[in-house]
Amino acid sequence: MGILIVDDDFAIRDSLSQLLEGEGFQVSSVADGQEALNYLLQSPERPCLILLDLMMPGVDGWHFRHRQKQYPAFASIPVAIISAHPNFRSQATTLDAQGYIDKPIDIDALFEIVARYCV
Amino acid sequence: MLPRVSIATLVSKLANPARRSEAARDLAVYLGAEDLIIFIKDPEIDLLLPAPGFPQTLPAGRVWRAFLVECARVRHHNGQLPFPDERTLRTATGVVADDGSLLVLLGGIPDVTLVTEVSTLVPLLAAAFRGERAVAIAEGQVQLAHQSATQARVLANALDLVRHELQRALHARDEFLSIAAHELKTPLTSLLGYLQVFKRRAAREGHMNERDHATLLTIDLQAHRLHKMVNDLFDLSRIETGILTIERRPLDLTLLCKRLTDEVQPVLEKHSVALQADGPVLVEGDDTRLEQVLQNLLDNAIKYSPEGGEIVVEVARRDEHGCMSVSDQGIGIPEASRSKLFERFYRAGNVESRSITGLGIGLFLVHEIVTSHGGTVEVTSQVGRGSTFTVCLPLLHNTVTLHPLDFSASPAQQMSSSMSQPKPSPTR
């Protein structure tokens, strides 16, 4: 079981992948919500955690979260929001995520949430 | 001699404003003079003024005024007056009517009997003239009011437009700040992420030559400077849009100061930081935000004392307040700059020449955070000697109403968390 990173910025996907892989985690990454849904539908394994950006072109983070909850198979996959959006925490009720991490990312907070859901 | 009815006819002709000057001349000639002016008392100011339809400006006003005053005094007065220009002096006869209005005949030799007779009719005319004047004044005021109303409308429209533009500009600025902060955070996220990758890889593999290590530290330091600036900009935009939140909990200022001074001392080369405190000082506030306040004050103390020296952080109670102050031995702040020091984007007058850079946001944030806690921030300074910034917050009073365990738990928790807390990771 790996971690799925959903972010439209390549450098963020790549740096987070390297960082997490460096600590021994298996990581996949996609660039938007549609790709994430496709990945979930096609992948034989469920990720242990989804790190989800909010502001992305096409299917954005809010939209992805909404769609994810409609699929019983994926609805329970834990999601941590990673965002630079000024007040995304105030939308916690709508997003209903398991974690909220501001960009730039606090590494301790990231590893803490990863440790909680991924062994 | 002309029949008596002619006097009444001639006088009555004066009532017609359209032909008044012509009628005045006819009457003057009939009375043996060349010209005639009737003066009436202005109802508002106690002054004799030419009635409407007669010449309104008279040459050599002083001479006329003296003549009119004399007439009013003696009721019948003969003299000389300049008319129609200053150089043409003409004989003048003034007769005051019963209502105080005045008939002045110019030139010739008027027939006194006829003049007296006419003067008995003048009050009737004067009443009509006053009516005319009142109507003219009222019309003027109506027109003025109309003009004022039009001008007020134009001004109100202009003001609306300005206000609208101002709101748009303010909105655009807030939006820009918010977008700029967001856009800056994206590359910063990957930059700090890659830095972590490097540092962790180097730590894992256990080899990195000294020069690369030093380079990595510099990149780390600069990236964090950038991070702080972006955070300041971000906070600024949150203040502007009113979404900077303060979460109040009981906290110990001494502990907060100790935590930060302990953190900052190891990375300083030219400065030493001393903490002066005498036991816990409890206030109610947002731990993260107040830490930001102290961090900004410490950053400034270091930045504005480029020669180094001692920085003293003092925590004390003052009356009903818990205060923390940061003193440096730096360049100081010119007196003229002090009143504007807490305004956004403001930088003191003596920083440019010393090439000390900054955005001018730090102290604005300090001020906003402190005032939203119901506190104050003050500065004392001597140019060339140093500055002291003092932040005072209301002391936590209702200790009795707090659960004793909560009360004791708070500082202790902070103590234990500060002790077990690892060195902040570079992305913080």
Topology:
The complex is a heterodimer of chains A (119) and B (428).
Chain A: E1 3-6, H1 10-22, E2 27-30, H2 33-42, E3 49-52, H3 61-70, E4 79-83, H4 92-95, E5 99-102, H5 107-117
Parallel strand pairs in A: 1-2, 1-3, 3-4, 4-5
Helix pairs in contact in A: 2-3
Chain B: H1 5-13, H2 20-30, E1 35-41, E2 48-50, H3 61-74, E3 76-82, E4 89-96, E5 102-106, H4 112-205, H5 210-240, E6 249-252, H6 253-264, E7 271-277, E8 282-285, H7 287-303, E9 309-318, E10 321-327, H8 335-338, H9 362-372, E11 376-382, E12 386-394, H10 404-420
Parallel strand pairs in B: 7-9
Antiparallel strand pairs in B: 1-2, 1-5, 3-4, 4-5, 6-8, 9-10, 10-12, 11-12
Helix pairs in contact in B: 1-2, 1-4, 4-5, 5-9, 7-9
Assembly form of the protein: heterodimer
Total count of strands of chain A: 5
H/E element sequence of chain A: EHEHEHEHEH
Gross morphology of chain B is rod-shaped
Number of helices of chain A: 5
Gross morphology of chain A is: globular
User: What is the CA-atom radius of gyration of chain A, in angstroms?
Assistant: 13 Å
Ranges of chain B with pLDDT <50 over ≥5 residues? 399-428
- State mean pLDDT of chain A (0 to 100 scale): 92
End-to-end gap of chain A: 9 Å
Given helix and strand content, the structural type of chain B is alpha+beta
Extended strand count of chain B? 12
Greatest interface (CB-CB under 8 A), with counts per chain? A-B, 22 and 29 residues
Give the end-to-end Cα distance of chain B, rounded to a whole number of Å: 116 Å
Approximate helicity band of chain B: 40-55%
Structural Rg of chain B: 44 Å
